[in-house]
Design a protein that fits this description.
Elements (H helix, E strand, L loop, with lengths): L6 H12 L4 H8 L3 H25 L1 H7 L11 H9 L1
Helix pairs in contact: 1-3, 2-3, 3-4
């Protein structure tokens, strides 16, 4: 899937995720503005998500595997926090 992306998008993804460079460092590496790097990265992610959705639609078995995890809802009890501070 990544191999299907345009060259610039592959380069940004490789440097950002595999080489673990920041967006700023990726921009310096290729002499691109930070905004350009961010836009290229966003476009690549949109394309990958679209491709995954297509694959899910074609193969029902992938639906369970590729289902997005629900975000964690962090809740807390204020009374507990107050008790913790006083002890």
């Amino acid at each position: 899937m990544i191999g299907e992306l345009p060259e610039k998008e592959r380069q940004v993804l490789a440097l950002y995720y595999f080489e673990e460079l920041t967006m700023k460092e990726v921009g310096r590496h290729w002499a691109w503005a930070n905004r350009a790097v961010s836009q290229i990265h966003s476009l690549a992610i949109v394309r990958l998500r679209a491709r995954l959705s297509e694959m899910q639609a074609r193969n029902p078995r992938l639906r369970a595997v590729l289902r997005r995890p629900q975000p964690r809802r962090w809740t807390f009890d204020v009374r507990r926090l107050r008790r913790g501070k006083s002890s």
